[in-house]
Amino acid sequence: MVWVFLIVCLFFPCPGLGFERISKPRFAVGDVDGDGETEVVVGGRVGRFLGVDAPWSSRRARVGVYRRQGQILKAVAESENMHVVADVTVGDVDGDGVGEVIVVGAGRLRLLAMVGDRLVVRALAQLDGPWTDRVVAGDVDGDGRVDVGVTVYEIGPESEVGQTWIVFYTWEGGTFKRRYQMVVPMHVGDLCLEDLDGRRGPELILEIGAEEEGGEGRVYRWIGGQYQAFGQGPMSDDGLRVFSVSGLPGPASGIVAGTPDGRIRLFDFDGQGFRFRQEVKMAPGLGNAVLIPGPGRTLGVVAGPSFEVRPFSF
Ligand SMILES: [Ca+2]
Ligand SMILES: [Ca+2]
Ligand SMILES: [Ca+2]
After folding, report:
1. Is the peptide bond prior to 55 cis by the omega test (within 30 degrees of 0)?
2. For a designed S-S bond to 101, which of 39, 112, 193, 311 qualifies (C-beta 3.0 to 4.6 A apart)?
3. Within a 10 A sphere around the Cβ of 242, how many other Cβ atoms?
C-alpha cells in the first residue's frame, strides 16, 4: 500500500494564558460550537501525577477544546476541574445541531457544552460502578436520537476474570435515561460506532482482552433491539492491547486501532474479520490517537502526549 506523508509536524501545544497542559490525553473530534468546523476535544489529567492510592478528590483533570490553525492546534476553551477524566467523545445528544462533549471518569457521566471559552457541565449522571473507562456516542437504534454508551468494568468477589457492562443512555427531558445494556465477559480496551457495511445504522466495534493480552476486535450489529456479535479478528500483533479504537471521520468507512507501541492501523471490515489497509507509525506511547478530517483523502493524526499532528493521505 502506497501512502504519503504530506507534512510531518511536531507541535507542542502552547495552552495559552489560563489553559493548563493536559497529560495522558484522550481525544475526540466534532463540531462543538456550531460553526461547521471540526474541533479536537482533549481530556486528561492536569497537574502532577498522583499514585493509585490518591483519592479522587485530590486529583485534577480537565477537558480542552482545540481548533486547527493550519497544522497547529490552538486551545480555545477548557472545562473546570473534574478530578478524573478517563475518556471523552462528541455527539449531538440533544439534537439541536451542535455537538456536546461527553466525559466519563470515576463512575460519572458528564455532558458539557461550550459557552464562550468555557466548557460548562450541563448534566451529571452517576453510573453503576467506579471503573468507567470509555464512552461512545451515536444513534445505535436508528431512531434519529444520539445514544451515549459507557463501559463499566467489574470483577466479582468470587471471580478472577472481570466483565464489562456497556450501558447506553438517551438524553430525554434534560437527563440521561438508560435504554439498553449488554455484558461482555472481558475487559473492553476501547469501543467505537462506525457504519461498516453501508446498511442502516452503525456497527459497534470493541477491543477486548484481559490485562496485557488482547487486541481482538469484535463487531456487533443492532438486530431486533439488541447487539449481536457477527465478526471478530485481531487488530494488533502478538496480542498487544488496543486502547484506542475509532472510525474513519467523514463518509469513508473503516476502523482505526492504536497500540501503546505507537502503531496506528487502518482496517476495512470484510464481513467477517478485519482487513489491514495501512499503518501510520508514531513514537511509542503515541498509539492513543484520533483522526481529524482534512481536504480530499487527507487525514490528520493527533496523538499524545505532545499532541503531534501528522497529516497523511489514504
Ligand atoms: Ca466548530
Ligand atoms: Ca447539541
Ligand atoms: Ca438512538
Report:
1. no
2. 112
3. 28
User: Which residues are 52's β-sheet partners?
Assistant: none
Q: What is the grid cell recorded at 178? A: 438508560
Which ligand neighbours the alpha carbon of 91 most closely? 2
Distance (Å, whole) CA 285 – CA 216? 20
Sheet holding 263-269, edge to edge: 244-247, 255-258, 263-269, 274-281
Q: How far is the CA of 137 from the centre of ligand 3 (A)?
A: 10
What spacing in Å lies between the alpha carbon of 42 and ligand 3's midpoint?
A: 25
Q: How far is the CA of 7 from the centre of ligand 3 (A)?
A: 39
Residues 6+ apart with CB under 8 A from 77: 64, 65, 114, 116, 117, 118, 119
User: What's the gap in Å between 31 CA and the centre of ligand 1?
Assistant: 4
CA of 156 to the centre of ligand 2 (A): 37
Contacts of 90 by beta carbon, 8 Å cutoff, 6+ apart = 28, 29, 30, 31, 32, 41, 99, 100, 101, 102, 137
Do the beta carbons of residue 166 and residue 150 sit within 8 Å? Answer: yes
Query: What tens-digit pLDDT sequence spans the chain (314 residues)?
Result: 333 332 322 333 344 446 788 888 899 999 999 999 999 999 999 988 888 888 988 999 999 999 887 777 888 999 999 999 999 999 999 999 999 999 999 999 999 999 988 999 999 999 999 898 999 999 999 999 999 999 999 998 888 889 999 999 999 999 999 999 999 999 999 999 999 988 878 999 999 999 889 999 999 999 999 999 999 999 999 999 999 999 987 778 899 999 888 888 999 998 888 999 999 887 777 767 777 777 666 677 776 566 767 777 77
